[in-house]
From TrEMBL:
PANTHER family: PYRANOSE 2-OXIDASE
Ranges for domain Glucose-methanol-choline oxidoreductase C-terminal: 417-540
Family: Belongs to the GMC oxidoreductase family.
Lineage: Bacteria, Bacillati, Cyanobacteriota, Cyanophyceae, Oscillatoriophycideae
GO MF, one annotated term: oxidoreductase activity, acting on CH-OH group of donors
Cofactor(s) essential for the protein: FAD
Domain FAD-binding: 15-46
Keyword annotations from UniProtKB, A to Z: FAD, Flavoprotein, Oxidoreductase
Origin: domain of life: Bacteria
Protein name per Swiss-Prot or TrEMBL: GMC family oxidoreductase
Organism in which the protein naturally occurs: Symplocastrum torsivum CPER-KK1
InterPro entries assigned to the protein according to its UniProt record, in alphabetical order: FAD-bd, FAD/NAD-bd_sf, GMC_OxRtase_C, P2Ox-like
Amino acid sequence: MLIDARTLSAEETIETEVCIVGTGPAGLSLARELAGQDFRVCLLESGGLDLPDPDTESLAEVETEGDFVQVFPDRRNRRFGGNSSYWGINISKGQLGLRHVPLDDVDFEKRDGFPYSGWPFERDHLVSYYERAQKVCKLGPFTYEAEDWEDANSPQLPFIGNRVTTRMFQFGPGAAFYKEYRDEINRSGNVTTYLHANAVELETEETAQTVTRVRVACLQGNQFWVKAKIVILAAGGVESAHLLLLSNKTQKAGLGNQNDLVGRFFMDHPLVYGGLFVPSNPKMFDSMALYDLRQLSKGTVMGGLSFTNEAMRREQLLNVSMLLLPRPIKYQSSEAVSSLKALFSSRGYKEGAKGTLEHLNKVVTGLDEIAGSFYDKLTKKDLPFWPNLSQGGWSNLPNKERIYNVFEVLHQTEQTPHPDNRVMLGDGLDKLGRRKAKMQTCWREDDIQGVKRAQAVFAEEIARAGLGRYEIEQDGDLPVISTAGTSHHLGTTRMDVDPKQGVVDENCKVHGVSNLFIASSAVFPTGGYGNPTLTIVALAIRIADRVKATMNTQTQTAKQQVESAS
């Protein structure tokens, strides 16, 4: 059942067994798992079913401090379905979605040279949940190895040794969450969804060991309460930490923040423009379909290069992917175009006025070249298809070796956890009267050097295998940033069995709070390079299993008590 919370009377109290804050992939996966159970579930959504109005969208604004910030309101979607309604990869005609990939073995391990790495369990523990998440996300079989997707006409690149390998991405539709699962949950008799309902505070008893109720406010002025036995935050990597910090009436530093960890260790997946991979044989383009975004009978996939687990362990490599986008023979990375890229990227590195002016001068003197390049791309009918991360299909073109001669390289990169990259409470107030979230982040030297080392290894292995050459492009002595983040907000309520090292325990329950869980990429201790949604859904299903077991035990105990009393 869907209810517009703006129609509720002021100060009303809704009683339920389980309260879920957020209706993104995590919240909806939880609700689906709990639908049909013998207990009530309340689902709170800040927005409505359509695009958020400006006031609702403004609630996602953050204050920023630092030189490597990219957290925008439209990438923290306050509407039913969360960011699933924002996904924009063209999977098939009329169907938009997202790329999915599980984390690697090494991402769960405590790694030499990587402080704060390591999950409380190995990847194998999560495999059964990954398999269930695979179905929830409407994906193909749970296999991401190239061997299971290649064929004689589309083989994987033949690298020598065991440093570089091909791994697959799979693609699933966003509408599965914001439309199909909305309808499914709406038909469930035990789940009630409240729209335009903003969770603003978690209230506890005097020892802060149990959440007693959630205070909820509407932008129109009325507020109400949700009293629940179990509360689950599924509000994303920024808002989950923000809500804990705002809930500070009992614990002054914020709920679950007794060790000053809430909001720390923020991570994302910076996207780096790497340069050009020039194949040694032009005919290579006719056999590279494995690296194109395309539909197969088993599912929609795209291959990319990455490091083996063995290489990452042995050489202490950052987990970095290498995505290949073919470019036409006319494509050139001129000095003017390179300076244009560097001009924008240099903001993240604080090159200063001199460096910026040098780039600007090259751009100005090369304006005719830049304008001509863009004009050609936009107007000439004979220019070939220009694939990107949201649009594939180039491998279906005839005479590819006559069209393309280079691959443009993009790296989706791991960002290592650091306590000073964090979410805090800012000074400004939002339209609900709450202190805004404030982001304090920068790209650390270890990450910069890690990307450069990764690029060097890719270049070495491409040359060693005789595949061609990788011409790495840099901004001075720095990697060229395409975007500082890909809206994968990770790590702000990290998982660890030790409350001095993590906000939540191995079951995603907040340390010291008996009935509060977090279902979000906020709990990731590390994040690898891959899109986090599949892992988010797997962890949400894992939490749901625990909640069902807890509630069923409580129900059974209550029945036994009634029978004993009678």
